[in-house]
Amino acid sequence: MSQHYDALETRSPQQREADLMAALPKQIAHAQQNSAAFAEILKGVEASSITSRAALAMLPVTRKYQLLERQQAQRAQDPFGGFGTIGWKGMLRNSGARRVYQSPGPIYEPEGHTPDYWRAARAMAAAGFEAGDLVHNCFSYHLTPGAWIMESGALALGCTVIPGGVGNTEQQLAAIADLRPNAYAGTPSFLKILIEKAAEAATKLSITKAMVSGEACPPSLRDWFTQQGVAAYQCYATADVGLIAYETAAREGLVLDEGVIVEIVRPGTGDPVAEGEVGEVVVTVLNPDYPLIRFGTGDLSAVLPGTCPTGRTQTRIKGWMGRADQTTKVRGMFVHPGQIAEVVKRFPEVTKARLVVTGEMANDQMDLQIETATASEALQLKVAEALRDVTKLRGNVQCVAAGSLPNDGKVIEDARSYK
After folding, report:
1. Right CATH number for 328-414 from 3.40.980.10, 1.20.272.10, 2.60.120.820, 3.30.300.30?
2. What residue ranges do the domains of the chain occupy?
3. Residue whose C-alpha is closest to residue 254's, from 315, 204, 327, 311
4. Neighbour count for residue 95 (Cβ, 10 Å)
5. In sequence order, what are the residues at sequence separation of 6 or more whose Cβ sits closer than 8 angstroms to the Cβ of residue 253?
6. pTM across the whole model
7. DSSP string for 221-281
8. Which of the ends of the chain has fewer CB neighbours closer than 10 A, N or C?
9. If DSSP codes are grouped into helix, strand and coil, which group holds residue 25?
10. Which residues, other chains included, contact 401 with Cβ-Cβ below 8 Å and sequence gap of 6+?
């Protein structure tokens, strides 16, 4: 197997950025012209001017709940809510969707005809998958795209796929015993079940490599797989944008895919955070069929410094670090990260904030901790007034030293006692 999937992985960072920024305005113009949703969301935006990350950061973030709202409102006319540029004959202006998937919500996603549509082959190649492998695919083939994401990547590499799907453990083990696949795609938890069930029957699986996703695979579990003779690698993908990042033999975070532009923003906002700070993963995908621009995944991560020891020069992220949606109910009112961001923006001397909710249900207390180099009682009073103005709730304000708040992506911490 070649060390790298293609030459894109070893471009200089400068060349990659130039290539991505050259593709970006074309994708934005395409989305404006062919997607009803982005024609509205990006109304008035001059696509040709979006040639830098700073310019991209000025565009609105579209989050999953907005996808759902538009789809629900337009379901009878356009099940994709105006976000897709392809449909099927007799329904949308263009046609060409090969499959339509349903994700929780429900949210519907189209799949076009491009080979390796979800770009999973890059991740699978980094995990050691190659032509001639027999892959037992244990992601779901029912409505959701998980199995198809992995299957398309495996087929692009020249692998053969067993469509195992989920459940039916005994039947799956029988198929593995008969066909002896050497590779697995699926969740890490189901792989663990297969290995343990095989051991109970005094047999050993033929699987030696695995592409796992869909849930966390901590180092302890990865090491356990290694002890069982399986080299397991993770990838980070979603039904909306496909592959976002993948693990390499270096085992140092996840390398970003070459077909996406990723930003890490402060939760509840579209504002990029400093490198290394935890924030929400926002993705712009260079997919003409489903051209999501600044799509907020709702997942938390952070950029890792440096480049991958394998020679891949793309940016790396730490991997999944939790969820960005920290909306909390306080005294019957919802408080969300965007409101805290609005408070902070009113005070240039405040660089970061964290709302801590304590007490017991029906007896809540809000304490807003603000990082500032110019702490004063007057500032605390002004910020407290802004907090009340924005959230309609009273709260205390505490000034803390710059850099003292935890780097965990939390804007709202619910520390209440529910006993």
Report:
1. 3.30.300.30
2. 328-414
3. 315
4. 11
5. 247, 304, 316, 317, 318, 319
6. 0.85
7. HHHHHHHTT-EEEEEEEETTTEEEEE--TT-SSEEEPTTEEEEEE-TTS-PBPPTT--EEE
8. C
9. helix
10. 371
